[in-house]
Amino acid sequence: MSVGAICVRAVDTASANETVLQAARRMHDRKVGTLVVLDNSGEPIGLVTDRDLAVRVLAATLDPTQTMVADIMTPHPETIHEHAPIEEALRVMRAGKFRRVPVVDARQKLVGLLSLDDVLALLAEEFREIGSLVADESPRSLAGR
C-alpha cells in the first residue's frame, strides 16, 4: 500500500513569515498539533508542532507576537513521495526519530501528511482482519461446520 492511500490530505499549513501567535491560534482553532510550513510554491520547508511552541517559545520566554514561525520551525523536513510504500515511510520515520512526514507529489508539492498514528491504525486493522481469518479457520470453528 502506498503512503498516499493512507495519509491525511487536508493538511493545516503555515507561512515562515507569520508570527507564532498566528500559527498557535490556527492550531487551536483547527485542533491540530502540527503545521507544515510551505514556501511560496507549496513545497514543505519546515514543521511546527505544539511542542515547538512550548519549548522554543514559551520556555525560552520569547514574545509570540514578535517571533516568526521561521525562527522556531524545524527546517528542511524529511518528505516522502505519495507513491512510496508504507514500509519506506516507516524507515524514514525510524531513521529520523519523528512521528510525522509531509507527503509530496512528483513536483515536491505538499499533498498530505502521514503520521505514525495513521500507520498504526492501518496495521491494527490488518491485524484484526488476520485475527478474524485465523479464528474462522481454527479447529473449533471448523468442527462447527
What can you see in these coordinates?
The protein has 145 residues and is α/β, with parallel strands linked by helices. The chain has a single domain (3-115), classed as CBS-domain (Roll), CATH 3.10.580. Helix content is 45%, strand content 20%. It is built from 7 helices and 7 strands. The protein has helices spanning 3-6, 20-30, 50-58, 69-72, 86-96, 116-136, 139-143; strands at 13-15, 34-38, 44-49, 74-75, 80-81, 100-104, 110-115. The strands form 2 sheets. The chain has a 4-stranded mixed beta sheet with strand order 1-2-3-4. It has a 3-stranded mixed beta sheet with strand order 5-6-7. The mean pLDDT is 91.
What is the alpha-carbon Rg in Å? 20 Å
Detail the poorly predicted runs. none
Shape: elongated
Note the run of SSEs as H and E.
HEHEEHHEEHEEHH
CATH class: Alpha Beta
Strand order of the largest sheet: 1-2-3-4
Percent range for β-strand residues:
15-25%
User: Share of helix among residues?
Assistant: 40-55%
